[in-house]
Amino acid sequence: MRRSIFRRLALSHLDLLYGAALRVTGSREQADDLVQETYRIAFERWRSLRDPAACRAWLLRILHNAHVDELRRRRRLVPVEAEVLEIPDPRGLADPERSGMARLTLERLEEALGRLSEEARWLFLLREGEGLSYAELADIFDVPVGTIRSRLARLRGRLLGEIAAGVGERRTKGAHDG
Amino acid sequence: MARCDGRLEEVSALLDGELDGEDELELRRHLDVCDVCTAWRMQLEALSASVAASLGRERAPRSLAHRVDRLAVGTALGTRVLMPLAVVVAVATLSWLGLALLRPLPAFEEALLRDHQRLVAGGVALAVPSSDPSEVARRLGELLPFGIAVEAVKGARLRGGHACTLQGLRAAYLQYERGGEPVSVFLYPRDAPGRGVAASQDGSCRALGETSVCAFEGTDEIISVVTSSPRTARAFRHAAHLSRP
């Protein structure tokens, strides 16, 4: 692949990288810095990209690694394994009112996402937000596809649990306030 | 709940379109009769829909697009104009000083770099494109006049192996990826004739532009690592060794 072709290809993913960085960091300034660092690395190492079709996942892996490095420098990284991620009993979620899904607001969803570690948020948002396949995610996180599958199921379970718990807290608070 | 334990993960994979045909059919049959898994599926669908509705598409600020574009041009300028200019200045200075670093790269190291570049760029397909260390070792043992053992390297992904001939010397080649960066590892017997590279147990390194070539001395073998920095190279010093019969 010629350098000029790589440049066009890489720049075509700018919005995607910025969106992913913004969702994970929650800060436009940090997202800006992270994306710039990603492209700096990408333009240095572009020859290592062997398959142009894999450019999107390759750039996202650099973005993810740059963010992990930044978090390590600030000692804020919590590996996904270190979190307690259990699939809740779905019988408790069968009732949309009890599960909170009937009245799920953007604010409540963001609260639940905000309680995930950065690594877990990366995984969830790259799947839900960018639609990356399990194979692409396995490549980015450097784990087997089966691990991605189980982590995603547990993350979703945890999010549903958080949302349901938020509803429970509000009800209790509402009862006390009332 | 017990009979549905494994199914919950499958339901999540089903929504992602990641279940194989047979597994999908079997799960759909299960969903027809299981209220628990059906409830789980509905909750996951609702969660997915909420996330999709909330995320939207972000556009990178125009100022960032300009900076990134300048970065691309700047890197190209650095590579095409400034770096060669810097090399010329550095070589001239070192020449004047008469330092040893000015000596041309030995032919053997040139051969290592050449093979590193063509194998990493994908110009030549790896003879053993496997990430399984024992499989790579076994297949390379069939292609080379010596047997090798390949070890897993922490934080790195094995891409495969190849049999190389460097200045007439047969060598095992292993390709790894670490942090998005390619790493080439060459291994050959320590007593092989014709190797023109200095090696030491801690690694004897030489930098060429953005690439480092480091040679590590093992018990029976020499490992030459070609990558971006001596620090990265050191992580691969025990990546492989000769296997004794």
Secondary-structure map with pairings?
The complex is a heterodimer of chains A (178) and B (245).
Chain A (H helix, E strand, L loop, with lengths): L2 H9 L2 H12 L2 H18 L9 H19 L22 H4 L6 H9 L3 H11 L5 H8 L3 H33 L1
Helix pairs in contact in A: 2-3, 2-7, 3-4, 4-8, 6-9, 8-9
Chain B lengths: L4 H11 L5 H13 L1 H21 L6 H36 L9 H14 L12 H11 L4 E3 L6 E10 L2 E10 L2 E9 L14 E5 L2 E7 L3 E7 L2 H5 L5 E3 L3
Helix pairs in contact in B: 1-3
Judged by helices, strands and strand pairing, the structural class of chain A is mainly alpha
Order of helices and strands of chain B: HHHHHHEEEEEEEHE
H/I helix tally of chain B: 7
Task: Give the chain pair forming the largest contact, with residue counts.
Answer: A-B, 58 and 49 residues
What percent of residues of chain B adopt helix (DSSP H or I)? 40-55%
What can you see in these coordinates?
The complex is a heterodimer of chains A (178) and B (245). Chain A has 178 residues and is an all-alpha fold. Chain A folds into two domains: 1-77, RNA polymerase sigma factor, region 2, helix turn helix motif (Rna Polymerase Sigma Factor, Chain: A); 78-178, Arc Repressor Mutant, subunit A (Orthogonal Bundle). Chain A has nine helices and no strands. Chain A has helices at residues 3-11, 14-25, 28-45, 55-73, 96-99, 106-114, 118-128, 134-141, 145-177. In chain A, helix 6 (106-114) crosses helix 9 (145-177). Chain B has three domains: 2-55; 59-103, no CATH class; 104-242, Phosphorylase Kinase, domain 1, CATH 3.30.200. In chain B, the strands form two sheets. In chain B, strands 2-3-4-7-6-5 form a six-stranded antiparallel β-sheet, with helices on both faces. Chain B has a two-stranded antiparallel sheet with strand order 1-8. Chain B is of the alpha+beta class. Mean pLDDT of chain B is 78; it is low at 95-105. The N and C termini of chain B lie far apart (54 Å). Classes of the chains: A mainly alpha (178), B alpha+beta (245).
